[in-house]
What does this fold into?
Amino acid sequence: MQFTVFTSTVPDRLTKVLSLAADGSMAKESAANMMRGTAQRATVQGLQALADVLERLTAAQAVSWGVCDRAQAAIVPERDVQGLPDAISRTRRHFAYPAGPGVLMLDHDGTPEGDLNADAFRQRLIDACPVLADAPMLWRPSCSAGVRAPDGRELSALTRHRLYIPVRDASCIPEAGRALMQLLWAAGLGWFEVGRAGQALERTIIDGSVWQPERLDFCAPPVLLHGLQRPQAAPRIFGDPLALFDLALIPRDADTHKQAQALKKTQRANLAGQCAAQRERWAQQQAPALAKRRGIPLEKARDVLQRASAQRVLMGDFVLTSELGKPVAVGDILDRPDRWHNAQFADPLDPDSDTRVAVVNLKSGRRPYLYTHRHGGMRFELLRQSARIQVGRGMRVATTDAVLSVLQERGELFDYGEGAVAYVSDGKARTVTPDWLTDHMGRVCEFFSVRSRRKVDGDDTTEECPEDAPLSVARAILAKHGERGFKKLVAVVTAPTLRMDGTILDRPGHDEQSGLLYYSEHPSPPRVPQSPSVQDALQALRFLWKPLAQFPLVDAVAHGVVLHGLLSAALRASLPTAPGVGFDAPAAGSGKTLLARCIGILATGSEPSILPPADTDEETRKRLFAVLREGQRVVLWDNVREPLGSASLDAFLTASTFADRVLGSSETVTLPNRALFIATGNNLRMTSDTCRRVLTARIDAQSETPYARDFSFDPAQMVQADRLAYVVAALTIVRAYIAAGRPKMASGRTASFEQWDDLVRQPICWLAQQVTMAQDASLPELADPMEAARRAFEQDPETTKLRAMLEAWHATAGDRQTTVGEMIRRGDTDAHVAMAMDDIAGQSGKINSRMFGRWIERMQGRIVDGKRFVRIGHRAGLLHWAVYATRATSPAADRPTMPADVAQNVATF
It folds into this structure.
């Protein structure tokens, strides 16, 4: 089992100090917050070895059950990391649960019904989750539990416990912890407490806020003074001390979730009155001090406090306690994002000595927020005070300008495409309607009108009256195309990416250069290496391919197409256009959809919406436009049966914008198109125009029942769990190619996909060469993904017909020019010609000359096997055609070698 041991230097003590008070009771000096020190990765085998390590911890030590990304590191505050290249901060950027053996810690601090001893606590856990009966466990009391005075008196009962469960895959701990909490609620072992600020605080018999990999467990023995003892503090082991528990055994079902949610809803409703009364008392108590500190009216101070408790909104005048114990107003924090981003604070509603329990995120790409880990975790939005705007007759223009100024300053709305306005929600760009904007205006502005009132004595007075946000102003703002002054938005990404020029974009927020908004809830998002080496690229490929290793891809071209899907998923937001990805197989159940889901999850971080293919071109256009309006960045068409292709789909794949009429309106909107198209189907085929636009990888399990295969892991879950790391691995490959000087590895530059060719195709071909040179069996063989387009053309039914017709025509007429009618007549005596024409324009045993002629018109100029149709011109009212070959060795291979008689005829015509 792996974990991390911390040794603090500032302060020099972490654990609690227990002493005897003057009245004979136990006095406690709380554990301290670690500011500076060291982190040491630790590995033990078995619960007894773990118990020995924990019992030997000193007063300056604590552990986290996540693993540091280095074997040993100096720990400093986040603000000091930049000046100390060998040091790290104790943040999730550097700590994670291992994807292997680790420790799940369960912390119990009592119940409303009374205290539980160790056996009763363990039994209640097993009653709620019976699979825990077979789980090995290490029991230890909390630091201040089981303490006795020198005369033998019990000062604290043995009723606070920690259980340590060795697990097979520690990366599943957060998810398993949430599932266990649901089971406890469903078993009636959950409740709510009324917090000091009137919050409804969720509780169960275990603490649900302890499963962050960087969180400290102050499990070292306490410092005992004045002869205090803990005679019953020896650890106990349940079950096999060398076994590992499989967290996948903890049930996760919809019925349990529904039952737990219903119980929570009922308990919240029962406590609503108590919470409201406590909020009022708390606001009344705190308001005078806040009003004096901020120089604001008492009523406004109460409003600020009420919003914090009831709505979890911290207004500009709300005061937080910083990591150093100093008061800081939310408005000051918002004014200095570079200073306060990722800074740590005390809990806003329940501040105490722990001033590092909350983190401020000012650069998530959306509205700034504070997240506190206290009480199971809560999120608070940080807002400036609402602007006050006057409305009235004749003031529409002034009101519109005032509202627009507020919206520009807040930076929450964006110009999106041509004519549209968008906001960002859940990592997606969503277009704004007049009704939505009206509601938003009412939330960020206080509208009022001024009315005159005549007093009895004849003097006129005025008063301000609150007003609703005016819909007419919202419509006026949406009508100001190009004049709103909002930032331009092309797409929203939820992971690092590269700009179109290959530079790195890994800092959250709006990037003016690219028009991308990087939205991240992660307090310390991962960074992309600037100049990785070839070995870094190979290691990144090895890691990136791990979830896909068991898919039976047929060859190196299929590998290249899948890698195109992975790299394009990471880069699609920056690429104006990119080929789609297709997965086909000879039979159902081969894993096509699962592989498509993996790429979709890599692109967005969530499961892609799976859509059936549309039947008509019009329906295709509507569905694709709807996907863009909803902010989706992956289009997954599953189980395509007919040949894939239509005019709308082809345009969608080769256009950086996509336009259509808004449903229920006469308005046409043009939106940015940064969506990755994925299609799956059994023996997937595409029309000729779509062949080069969707690159297909074939999967063949070579089994009569491929659906019966069993993966040893869930690839989609694997990508989901560590998505950011997989994105960084994909970008590392591209950056390594750029650092190598961008060598030209594949010939040509793919038409309509030039930027994709530069940032995806060429790096893949370069990496293919590095894989060959490495001769490493753990790496997949790679080939140019555009080879899949050539294969698709070969399998295209139109290509097959054209090949047969060109061969038959040339065999019959040679290089001579002739007409469609003459060729039909030759078919009466030439079976080869007759069969080729019948496939194209055969009707009831005859050749339809009009259909045949139109088909040749569509096919003219397209080269197959070095031959193509050329239009010669009209003579005697008849259109003449010729078939001739291209130069095999010419640099311009698409230029014809025209026979002399044909050239003369062309000149004559």
